[in-house]
């Protein structure tokens, strides 16, 4: 495969004015991502984005985002109604052809606009048999949490400690929606929301936008001191119906991790929107005790839906740019970690 | 050098006003199974799945790849969902072809669908707000501008409406079957959006289309004649800004120039034997004839008027009956791509163009701002 590297990553600030549009969040974010490697929109050979209409209740909402991409003169462009991590995958595939060297990837979402993301995401489920039950993503996550605790012997205290650790790590992350020093005991004392999950176990839905620049071949070294080379990228999906899966495991993550050669990473940025998902993902990816998980705080400190996965890849790339040898970013979609993407990035000397 | 890519399986459902005999998943399954049967493959042979559909709100299922993963045989495999407005069926096929040409995968199933009967498209087009004019309401002024610029006689649009419905009579999958279609009947149908008569507009349809794509060795071993991909291109431009020409959009011209270059097409009307292009309203045939370079600017209507775009003409357009006869929106672009493939495979049945060796598939969307195209041929490039 052709060598492709992440050379730049930018995120929209968490604090956005009320009524902010995704387009307006994206314009400065894209400009920053390109500008930090001395590029403009004119340098981009392929653009790919991710977003979802349902968060704003619109149709064709991605069309407006073309203004942020700068689609004039006409550009070669595509869009996935998925987390931006899959847009990055499509861009990586496109760069394999050799006729284009620079790709712009971005995604945006306004999860905070939704009065209740639990209600909105219900529309993702089988409309005939699953959605009408009203079992939203948090309720299904609670079933999964119970399943993993039952199988592995982990406890609710372990979940509280994960949340406390991530919130502590997020103190250095200006894009985290919640951060600070919290005692696991205090978290554990809170009332459950659904089953074993408490409110703090679920990453708060926030608005967000992010952009990544991919460059193929030697040109990556010209624009970036230490590019985060994509060493492997793969994604898989599990069956939709929670009832046919062993919810305590994630076979799709395991396969994606193997295909993307996730072994031996030093850092893993996981889309664990709920605290217990870290346990499942770490096992599926075979992460050893020495692996630093979610140094950014991860998705449990802020879930900019449709952007969360792309941010994880961006955070992994940032680790590599800052000296880490090998890191992975993980994205997820669907109920109970149904669909998973793993992108492994590495530094090269 | 990119891997050569071949279409070895094509499947589509009966296109109809309301497919209440199947669920959304059942509709997709039907098309996918037919594509696999055509390729003489089973679900196990497929490495990855790429699906496309228009806005989720049309059916009320958000990010439907999550729910459809089982039905389209994706469990344990990669699945992606593309959305590029009305061009989505075409751009989905382009993304799928890239998975082969990049050598990431060897066999990819691609599928596009729409089940318009599940919702209200015009409601959705305006995001549920009042004042929606529908797609025709948006495009009608562009059509009026085209007629004024080109001086085209007013019967050219109705001619397209008649031709495509007559072609549809030869396509058992086509939605509209109007055996006694005539210019008079079209002109007597009410204006929906002046100058678009009701019979100059596409219907709303349920339907799905699927294709199996594979690499060079797969194409060589294909059970039936393959369609080789000679080029793919996508282009997008902003929809609204001063100075933009929405009648003859630059993105469409750039996209065709790109795909022609890849396929070695220099004189489109001579080098391409048949084209399936996205014509949801009759007048878009002459408009796209010019945008695609089959005719000089202002001359597109003369191709239609002379009969050149009929099945007996030198550049047959939409022998399947096209979008005017069947419009499952998200699938309409892929149907164009798939029908182009069927033509060069010699498998188009009654609407086969004899000796078709090179065909263009075309899709557009948004405010005539999204374009996807491919050229397929009977010969390996």
Can you tell me the overall shape of chain A? globular
Q: List the helices and strands of chain A in order.
A: EHEHHEHEHHHHEEEHEHEHEHEE
> What's the CATH C level of the domain at 4-114 and 205-223 in chain A?
Alpha Beta
Average of pLDDT of chain A: 96
What percentage of residues of chain A falls in helices of 4 or more residues?
Answer: 25-40%
The proportion of strand residues of chain B reads 15-25%
**Main sheet summary of chain A:** 10 strands, mixed
**Strand count, sense and closure of the main sheet of chain B?**
9 strands, mixed
Taking pLDDT < 50 over at least 5 consecutive residues as the criterion, the unreliable ranges of chain A are: none
Number of strands of chain A: 12
Tell me the series of helices and strands of chain B, N- to C-terminal: EHEHEHEHHHHEEEHEHHEHHHHEE
Oligomer: heterodimer
Q: What is the correct CATH architecture of the domain at 4-114 and 205-223 in chain A?
A: 3-Layer(aba) Sandwich
Strand order of the largest sheet of chain B: 3-2-4-7-1-8-11-10-9
Q: State the strand order across the main sheet of chain A.
A: 3-2-4-7-1-8-12-11-9-10
Q: Tell me the total number of β-strands of chain B.
A: 11
For this structure, the CATH topology of the domain at 4-114 and 205-223 in chain A is: Peroxisomal Thiolase, Chain A, domain 1
Number of helices of chain A: 12
Features:
heterodimer; A: 349 residues; alpha/beta; Peroxisomal Thiolase, Chain A, domain 1; ten-stranded mixed β-sheet; 12 strands; globular; B: 381 residues; nine-stranded mixed β-sheet; 14 helices; 18% strand
Structure description:
The complex is a heterodimer of chains A (349) and B (381). Chain A has 349 residues and is an alpha/beta fold. Chain A is 32% helix and 21% strand. Chain A has twelve helices and twelve strands. Chain A has helices at 22-35, 61-64, 66-69, 84-95, 117-121, 137-152, 156-169, 184-188, 219-223, 251-259, 275-285, 308-321, and strands spanning 4-11, 46-50, 77-80, 102-110, 192-194, 197-198, 207-216, 228-237, 267-269, 292-293, 326-333, 339-346. In chain A, helix 4 (84-95) crosses helix 12 (308-321), helix 6 (137-152) crosses helix 11 and helix 10 packs across helix 11 (275-285). The radius of gyration of chain A is 19 Å and the shape is globular. Chain A starts with a strand and ends with a strand. In chain A, 61% of the residues are buried. The mean pLDDT of chain A is 96. Chain B is of the alpha/beta class and 381 residues long. Helix content of chain B is 35%, strand content 18%. Chain B has helices at residues 24-39, 65-68, 88-101, 121-125, 134-150, 156-168, 183-188, 216-220, 250-263, 268-271, 284-291, 300-306, 322-325, 329-345; strands at 6-12, 48-52, 79-82, 107-115, 191-193, 196-197, 206-214, 227-236, 274-276, 358-365, 370-377. The longest helix of chain B is centred in the middle third of the chain and has 17 residues, at 134-150. In chain B, 65% of the residues are buried. The interface between A and B is large, with 57 and 58 residues.
